[in-house]
């Protein structure tokens, strides 16, 4: 509702009170000054577009006085486009949406009626155009340019171009006053794409008209041309008003004069015919425009009453048969078009599908390759882990094996001690029985038996034997633990090897690239070599242990031989001194003994042994085997655990070395090499079944053991090594470096042992009885240290001990005491000098002299040999007395000659063989700790000190004996 109030109305004017000019008008919609272009468009024009497309006519025209915003509403600005642009945009959008089914043709024309003349705004040079009415009563502009386009942007450009051609002049009322009526006609022809004989064409026309504003001359102050323009404008608008008035009249027979102006003629259909028409009436809120507003509203109100009959503009085209050809051609072209469209769509779809398939394939491939890579990495990781585990287990087994070896060596030593004691006990019992037999006349048999029994049981075991039994019990326990651990590890090793074998089968199948295969193969080869190296080291260690064990046996025999020599010589001296009768047979035997000494048969045997030992050590390990690093020369010589520590450090070194990503080889005994990627070396093949080599058990017969270990079935008076296992070890030679290191180790131990021996000798009171002994004892250590290098080869060889006669001839050391010479001659002879001894010797007959000469010759020969070996003269020989000490051992307190023990004087207060008098320091027996703490950890820390102590003791003994045999 629009309420128009009269600004001139005076409420106090009684006379005009009943003639109020205030009026209310009702419209479909009214906009105030806040309304936007879009709101106006939506409320007025938007609803017409669908009708136009489907064949209905429609008209939107802006009506009102000048300067009230008609052009603004219809055309708008670039930023606020008006109805023209908005309508066309929507029109083309709808056409596009339905163009699949319908065929559209859109034409546009733009004209102006200026001073009752029609101008083509799209083609101004075409001049003034005439209006014509066709046979169907439709008003047409003859010669008007109809632009066919379906592009909204193009239409906008045309509109802008045409609008510039529109006559626009400034007036007093409007700076941009339009001096003409502008008519934009858009014709939409729509037909179905389905061809038929009867073709239906829908033609919708849309008129969008921006009328010129009615103006009053007084208001516009127009003169001349402007005034003339105004007159024309007003006339045409008056005609429009008249038409509206006529159309709006409700009376039946009305006459509408459209012919008064070109505007009404053009809008004939729009106003009263077949058209949906929207009239947008513009008014000014200014009180000065009251009259114009009232007129406008009055016309708009009247126009409201105009009723039009709208019908769809259909053109049914019935084609003639002659046109069928064209129709068919059209249809074919349409079919082709549709086919192309379908093909294009199909192509696009298939492209999309193909792209999808390709994407899917690529994705699948990517996933597959990623999975494959992950799987390969996983397998490789597993393989490396199995190799690593194999390596670790082999290493631990090696350590356990070494432990086992040490235990066995120590056990054998203790068993020997016990066996010796058992023999001693038997001898004592026998002796006691003989004594008892002599007294049997006095006592009756029953008493004797009971006494015998009592006496036997009363024999007290020496502490070293008890200690040996304790040690054996501990060692047996330790051996059990080690064996159990070994079994578990071997079982685990088998499992891991099986796993590795499976991986070995899987991996070549999975590896696609030859390069990968090669790299992996090389990697495995490296680890194979690593494990081979470990195995060889293990064997080298075992062999070293075996050699030490063998040397120990040799030393024992040599010790024994030394005693025999001593006894024979002394007894021979007694015989000669007292001119005792010697049976022929004994004489012959003695001759044979002398011959043997002269010919040096035993020396040769020892030489052979030395050569064998040396050969074993000389045969180098292959270069890939990292040599064992034994004692460093710079190590602390006071340490009791030198060699053991070094062994431990070697293990640490190995462990460190294997910590990097190393792989042990894949050993598959059953698989043929051709089917394998990772082959086992011949060496590994050869020793793979003896990876865990067990040294031969030490058999000691006649031993009474409280708890005999399984691998030590019974006692034996000798150590025996299995020849088979020895052969196995001989296959594994030592490198030069290793040999050197062993020698260095021996040197360290030798120096240390000599130092200890020196201390012991100094502490021994008996040694102080002989003045030179003290000197030589102190000298010996120095000498040893000095000449160690030159002695080393002989140290390894373990030269035979020199004859005791030689020591006596030297007469400078305490060996005469230690060999029992003094004792054999009685207490009175203890102070007798060696010279006296020699003088006595010269008193013999010629035969004896000859023998002496022979012995002297042998002595000289040996002495000269010692010079040759050492390269030094007398001082070395003098110092050699310290090295003539027999082997020290906690179990060597007694020496047994031909089964008869020579007792240690200290426990029994009888005859003394000084060989047994030297005792090792206490620390030497107990040991300080496990030689390898890592091993202790691996074996659950159950390793007792006695194992290591025993091992250390053995090494020390070897070192001393090595020196003993040198000069
Ligand atoms: N709604 C509106 N918002 C902003 N400015 C408007 C609005 N309506 C009209 N105008 C401004 O008023 C001035 C006159 O408007 P316009 O030229 O559209 O009037 P008209 O009715 O077309 O005049 P004439 O009949 O003389 O051509 C123009 O500068 C136009 O920008």
From TrEMBL:
Residues 321-348 form a coiled coil. CDD domains: KISc_KIP3_like. It is found in: Cell projection, Cilium; Cytoplasm, Cytoskeleton. Its main location: other. It holds the Pfam family Kinesin. Residues 168-180, 814-839 have a biased composition (Polar residues). Residues 430-451, 846-857 have a biased composition (Basic and acidic residues). PANTHER family: CENTROMERE PROTEIN E, KINESIN-LIKE PROTEIN KIF19 ISOFORM X1. InterPro entries: Kinesin-like_fam, Kinesin_motor_CS, Kinesin_motor_dom, Kinesin_motor_dom_sf, P-loop_NTPase. Plus end-directed microtubule-dependent motor protein that regulates the length of motile cilia by mediating depolymerization of microtubules at ciliary tips. The gene is KIF19. Keywords: ATP-binding, Cell projection, Cilium, Coiled coil, Cytoplasm, Cytoskeleton, Microtubule, Motor protein, Nucleotide-binding. Belongs to the TRAFAC class myosin-kinesin ATPase superfamily. Kinesin family. One of its GO terms (molecular function) is microtubule binding. This is Kinesin-like protein. GO terms for cellular component: cilium; microtubule. Residues 163-182, 430-464, 814-887, 922-948 are annotated as: Disordered. Residues 1-306 form the Kinesin motor domain. The keyword ATP-binding applies. Gene3D superfamilies: Kinesin motor domain (3.40.850.10). ATP binds at residues 64-71. One of its GO terms (biological process) is microtubule-based movement.
């Amino acid at each position: 509702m629009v309420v128009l109030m009269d600004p001139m109305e005076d409420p106090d004017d009684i006379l005009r009170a009943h003639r109020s000019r205030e009026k209310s008008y009702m419209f479909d919609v009214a906009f105030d000054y806040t309304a936007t272009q879009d709101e106006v468009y939506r409320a007025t024009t938007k609803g017409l577009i669908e009708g136009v497309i489907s064949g209905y006519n429609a008209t939107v025209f802006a009506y009102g006085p000048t300067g009230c915003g008609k052009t603004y509403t219809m055309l708008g600005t670039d930023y606020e486009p008006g109805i023209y642009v908005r309508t066309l945009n929507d029109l083309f959008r709808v056409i596009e949406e339905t163009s699949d089914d319908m065929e559209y043709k859109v034409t546009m024309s733009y004209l102006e009626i200026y001073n009752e003349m029609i101008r083509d705004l799209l083609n101004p040079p075409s001049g003034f155009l005439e209006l014509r009415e066709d046979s169907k009563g439709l008003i047409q502009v003859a010669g008007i340019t109809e632009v066919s386009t379906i592009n909204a942007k193009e239409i906008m450009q045309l509109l802008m171009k045409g609008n510039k051609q529109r006559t626009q002049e400034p007036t007093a009322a409007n700076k941009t006053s339009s001096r003409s009526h502008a008519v934009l006609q858009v014709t939409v022809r729509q037909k179905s794409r389905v061809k038929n004989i009867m073709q239906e064409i829908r033609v919708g026309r849309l008129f969008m008209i921006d009328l010129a504003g009615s103006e009053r001359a007084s208001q516009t102050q127009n003169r001349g041309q402007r005034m003339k323009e105004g007159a024309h404008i007003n006339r045409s608008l008056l005609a429009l008003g008249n038409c509206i008035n006529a159309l709006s009249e409700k009376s039946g027979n009305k006459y509408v004069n459209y012919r008064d102006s070109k505007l009404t003629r053009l809008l004939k259909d729009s106003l009263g015919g077949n058209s949906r028409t929207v009239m947008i009436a513009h008014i000014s809120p200014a009180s000065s425009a009251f009259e114009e507003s009232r007129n406008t509203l009055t016309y708009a109100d009247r126009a409201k009453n105009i009723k039009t009959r709208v019908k769809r503009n259909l053109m049914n085209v019935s084609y003639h048969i002659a046109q069928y050809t064209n129709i068919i051609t059209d249809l074919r072209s349409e079919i082709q078009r549709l086919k192309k469209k379908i093909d294009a769509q199909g192509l696009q779809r298939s492209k999309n599908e193909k792209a999808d398939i390709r994407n899917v394939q690529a994705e699948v491939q990517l996933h597959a390759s990623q999975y494959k890579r992950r799987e390969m990495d996983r397998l490789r990781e597993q393989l490396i882990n199995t190799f690593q585990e194999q390596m670790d287990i082999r290493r631990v087994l090696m350590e356990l094996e070494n432990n086992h070896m040490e235990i066995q060596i120590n056990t054998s030593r203790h068993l020997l001690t016990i066996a010796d004691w058992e023999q001693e006990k038997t001898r004592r019992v026998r002796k006691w029985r003989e004594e008892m037999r002599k007294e049997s006349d006095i006592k009756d048999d029953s008493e004797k038996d009971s006494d015998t029994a009592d006496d036997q049981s009363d024999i007290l075991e020496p502490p070293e034997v008890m200690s040996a039994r304790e040690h054996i019990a501990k060692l047996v326990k330790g051996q059990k633990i080690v064996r159990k651990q070994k079994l578990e590890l071997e079982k685990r090793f088998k499992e891991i090897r099986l796993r590795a074998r499976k991986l070995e089968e899987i991996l070549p199948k999975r590896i696609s690239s030859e390069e990968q295969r090669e790299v992996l193969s090389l990697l495995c080869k490296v680890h194979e070599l690593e494990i081979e190296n470990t195995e060889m080291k293990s064997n080298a260690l075992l062999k070293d242990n075996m050699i030490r064990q063998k040397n120990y046996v040799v030393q024992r025999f040599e010790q024994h031989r030394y005693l025999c020599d001593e006894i024979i010589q002394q007894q021979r001296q007694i015989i000669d001194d007292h001119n005792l009768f010697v049976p022929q047979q004994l004489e012959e035997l003695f001759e044979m003994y002398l011959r043997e000494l002269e010919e040096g048969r035993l020396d040769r045997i020892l030489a052979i042994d030395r050569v064998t030992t040396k050969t074993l050590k000389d045969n180098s390990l292959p270069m890939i085997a990292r040599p064992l690093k034994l004692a460093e020369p710079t190590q602390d010589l006071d340490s009791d655990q030198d060699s053991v520590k070094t062994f431990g450090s070697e293990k640490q070194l190995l462990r460190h070395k294997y910590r990097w990503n190393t792989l042990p080889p894949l050993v598959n005994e059953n698989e043929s090499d051709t089917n394998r990627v990772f082959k086992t070396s011949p060496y590994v093949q050869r020793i793979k079944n003896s990876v865990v080599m067990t040294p031969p058990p030490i058999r000691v017969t006649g031993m009474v053991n409280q708890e005999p270990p399984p691998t030590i079935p019974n006692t034996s008076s000798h150590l025996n090594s299995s020849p088979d296992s020895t052969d196995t070890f001989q296959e594994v030679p030592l490198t030069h470096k290793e040999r050197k290191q062993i020698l260095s180790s021996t040197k360290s131990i030798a120096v240390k042992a000599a130092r200890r021996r020196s201390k012991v000798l100094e502490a021994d009171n008996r040694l102080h009885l002989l003045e030179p002994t003290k000197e030589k004892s102190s000298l010996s250590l120095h000498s040893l240290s000095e000449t160690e290098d030159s002695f080393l080869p002989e140290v390894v060889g373990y030269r035979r001990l020199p004859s005791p006669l030689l020591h006596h001839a030297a007469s400078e050391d305490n060996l005469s005491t230690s060999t029992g010479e003094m004792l054999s001659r009685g207490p009175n002879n203890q102070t007798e000098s060696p010279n006296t001894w020699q003088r006595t010797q010269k008193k013999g007959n010629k035969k004896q002299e000859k023998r002496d000469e022979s012995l002297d010759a042998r002595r000289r020969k040996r002495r000269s040999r010692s010079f040759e070996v050492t390269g030094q003269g007398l001082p070395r020989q003098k110092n050699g007395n310290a090295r003539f000490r027999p082997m020290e051992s906690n179990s060597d307190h007694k020496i047994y000659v031909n089964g008869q023990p020579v007792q240690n004087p200290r426990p029994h207060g009888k005859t003394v063989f000084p060989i047994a008098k030297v005792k090792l320091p206490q620390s030497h027996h107990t040991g300080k700790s496990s030689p390898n703490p890592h091993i202790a950890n691996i074996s659950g820390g159950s390793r007792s000190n006695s194992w290591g102590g025993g091992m250390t003791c053995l090494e020390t003994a070897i070192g001393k004996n090595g020196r003993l045999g040198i000069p």
